[in-house]
Design brief:
Oligomer: single chain
Number of helices: 4
Helix content: 25-40%
Strand content: 35-45%
Shape: globular
CATH superfamily of the domain at 32-105: Transcriptional Coactivator Pc4, Chain A
Order of helices and strands: HHEEEEHH
């Protein structure tokens, strides 16, 4: 089998993973709901959907997302959209047009 980079023994000798660490490669840490979602919930849309405002990667976003319950915790799902402020402003500017089209097609 092919291996890329340095061999395991070379990394341990260099001390890149700390002294006395024999645990193999670092595993991915499961994110807590507080790590991934620390927003202010603006509203519940029903069917486990929420609108919230939160900070993500240092930027404020409007997040419309489905949530699911796992082990008694409510966690954000993959289905959803996070709108940065420039896209949120564009959407807000077109709300009247969207409302008019919804009424026409209802």
């Amino acid at each position: 089998m092919w291996r890329r980079g340095k061999k395991r023994g070379d990394r341990e000798a260099a001390g890149s993973r700390g002294a006395g660490s024999d645990t193999g490669p670092a595993s991915k840490r499961m994110k807590d709901s507080t790590d991934d979602f620390d927003g202010i919930v603006v509203g519940e849309l029903g069917n486990n959907r929420r609108v919230s405002v939160r900070s993500w990667q240092g930027k404020v976003v409007v997040d419309i997302r489905e949530f699911y319950v796992k082990d008694g915790k409510t966690l954000p799902g993959k289905k959803g959209i996070s709108l940065p402020m420039d896209q949120w402003k564009i959407l807000r500017e077109h709300v009247d047009e969207i409302d008019k089209l919804v009424k026409e097609n209802s």
